[in-house]
Write a structure and sequence with these properties.
The complex is a heterodimer. Chain A is an all-alpha fold. Chain A has a single domain, classed as ACP-like (Non-ribosomal Peptide Synthetase Peptidyl Carrier Protein, Chain A, Orthogonal Bundle). Chain A is 53% helix and 0% strand. Chain A contains 3 helices and no strands. In chain A, helix 1 packs antiparallel against helix 2 and helix 1 crosses helix 3. The two termini of chain A are 15 Å apart. Chain B has a single domain, classed as 3-Layer(aba) Sandwich (Peroxisomal Thiolase, Chain A, domain 1), CATH 3.40.47. Chain B is built from 14 helices and 14 strands. In chain B, strands 5-4-6-7-1-8-14-13-9-10 form a 10-stranded mixed β-sheet, with helices on both faces. In chain B, strands 2-3 form a two-stranded antiparallel ribbon. Chain B has a two-stranded antiparallel sheet with strand order 11-12. In chain B, strand 9, helix 12 and strand 10 form a beta-alpha-beta unit. The longest helix of chain B is centred in the first third of the chain and has 17 residues. The termini of chain B are far apart. Classes of the chains: A mainly alpha, B alpha/beta. At the A-B interface, helix 2 of A face loops of B.
Chain lengths: 88, 433
């Protein structure tokens, strides 16, 4: 299940960034992947739709959000947490 | 940058030559007329007329409250600058209500106030040479929302026959032309959050050139319904608690609704009939960032500001106040402050700049029209409307933003800024008469 979540997230972000999923490494930041502010908001929407979760994210204060977008690793961890909360 | 999302063009072009036209080719011997405002009307979250709105500006009162409409519980954004105590039946009869979307109702109410104040009668020849140009972004959005609900959610297969004439973006302009017999130019401009400033700028140009004797102008928006707010939620730029322009802890914009309508006429005619002149409109400029569909450009904004000053033949140091676009988003406020700082140089530290969106919310296509009232108040009454909700200085917005309390100050000239999604900028310059 865990691997499935992670691979779906990589696929979704890769589609947004127009890259192959293998290129979306855990260390990569959205900026490094070429995802701008609009692309980020669209990716978050796609993740919400995929996993039927609600991601707390305000583009005006991304650093204050509970959803850490520092890099792919933190994004994956945050999505996993939200998916787990939903299941609980 | 993501190539799918943005097509970054070449660097901003240099200032066009026309802006530097020698003074000798311009007024007063070039046939251009001076343009003045002789009537004003409004309805917005702060009040149902100009006097109550200006009183709220003086008090620094906030009109943003908990939203109240159908299905509001399904929204993650629960606040807005909604018009309070709105009962259409107080102003319109049954036949009118079935034909007027709320954005038209707001417009007509404001237009009647403005025309009444001006004292103009458009019977006969004046009506043939007068018109109306208004701004709106969403037009009859409540009508779309309500009728989509009927056909999609409720499964109805029939809608009211007036759906199209109610929802069309030009409905308000057309009803204003019918109400007052304005038989000259009549149309609507839709440039998102700059719609009203574009409309007023065009009205100014038409009266200045002699293409029209009198223009009713301004704009309106009535987007506070389930679909209207849900759409904005998607962008994730909305605040859940307050609109705090220029404050370091700002966290987004807050939607508002309402209308502002003004009577623009030529100075000589206004003087000849001894009309009260609220302010003179002296310049207008528009520019396009040609860069990004949502992220603003300081260079684009600066070109509109500088263009308006040059069109008005104002020196930067004559401007005492700027009514800011000031949406309360991270991106707009720092970009706008950078544009003002660059356009005004040292004088940027001496002028005042405030955002009244902190009080009435962002009226989208009608916002420049409602905010024009703060410009008139500054010039005519010598009172500068504050930016309320201001809590923490932001080094990226290091200008005098008139925090929290209105201020008495005599100013000679003011600007009204509007910078829309789509990178479309429109700046109007006004002067005390």
């Amino acid at each position: 299940m865990t691997d499935q979540i992670e691979s779906r997230i990589r696929e979704i972000v890769a589609e947004q960034a127009m890259l192959d999923p293998e290129q979306v490494t855990s260390e990569a930041t959205p900026e490094e992947l070429g995802i701008d502010s609009l692309g980020l908001v669209e990716s978050i929407f796609a993740l919400e739709e995929e996993f039927d979760i609600s991601i707390p994210f305000n583009a005006n204060e991304p650093e204050k959000s509970d959803f850490d977008i520092s890099n792919m690793g933190t994004i994956i961890a945050a999505v996993r947490r939200l998916v787990a909360q939903k299941a609980a | 940058m993501n190539p799918k999302k943005t097509g970054k063009g070449a660097a901003a072009p240099a200032m066009p030559d026309r802006l530097a036209a020698p003074a000798a080719t311009r007024r007063p011997d070039d046939g251009l007329r001076r343009v003045v405002i002789t009537g004003a009307g409004t309805i917005n979250a702060l009040g149902h007329d100009v006097a109550s709105t200006m009183q709220a500006f003086r008090e620094g009162r906030c009109g943003i409250t908990q939203l109240d409409f159908r299905d509001v519980d399904r929204l993650s954004i629960q606040i807005g600058g909604q018009v309070h105590d709105w009962r259409a039946e107080d102003y319109f009869n049954r036949q009118q209500i079935v034909l007027y979307d709320k954005f038209t109702q707001f417009t007509l109410l404001a237009a009647k106030q403005a025309v009444a104040q001006s004292g103009l009668d458009f019977e006969g020849a004046l009506g043939l040479r007068s018109g109306v140009v208004l701004g709106t972004a969403g037009g009859g959005l409540n009508t779309w929302d309500e009728n989509y609900r009927h056909v999609y959610e409720e499964g109805k297969n029939r809608v009211h026959p007036f759906v199209v004439p109610k929802l069309m973006n030009n409905a308000a302009a057309s009803h204003v032309s019918m109400e007052f017999g304005l038989r000259g130019p009549a149309f609507t401009v839709a440039t998102a959050c700059a719609s009203s400033n574009h409309a007023m700028g065009l009205a100014f140009q038409m009266v200045r050139s002699g293409a029209a004797k009198v223009m009713l102008t301004g704009g309106s928006e009535a987007m506070l319904c389930f679909g209207g707010v849900k759409a904005w939620e998607g962008l994730r730029v909305m605040s859940r608690d307050a609109c705090r322009p220029f404050s370091a802890n700002r966290n987004g914009m807050v939607q508002g609704e309402g209308a502002g309508v003004f009577v623009f006429e030529d100075y000589d005619s206004a003087r000849a009939r001894d009309a009260e002149i609220l302010a003179e409109v002296v310049g207008f400029a528009m520019s396009s960032d040609a860069q990004d569909i949502v992220m603003p450009s300081a260079q684009g904004a600066e070109r509109a500001i500088t263009g308006a000053l040059q069109d008005a033949r104002l020196n930067p140091d004559q401007v005492g106040y700027i009514n800011a676009h000031g949406t309360g988003t991270a991106a707009n406020d720092k970009t706008e402050c950078a544009a003002v700082a660059h356009a005004f140089g040292h004088h940027a530290d001496r002028l005042m700049i405030s955002s009244t969106k902190s009080m009435h919310g962002h009226v989208i296509g009608g916002t420049g029209a409602v905010e024009m009232l703060a410009c008139i108040m500054a010039l005519r009454d010598g009172v500068i409307a504050p930016t309320i909700g201001y809590q923490e200085p932001d080094p990226e917005c290091a200008l005098d933003v008139v925090p929290n309390e209105a201020r008495e100050a005599r100013v000679e000239a003011v600007l009204s800024n509007a910078f829309a999604f789509g990178g479309l900028n429109a700046v109007v310059a006004l002067r005390r008469v």
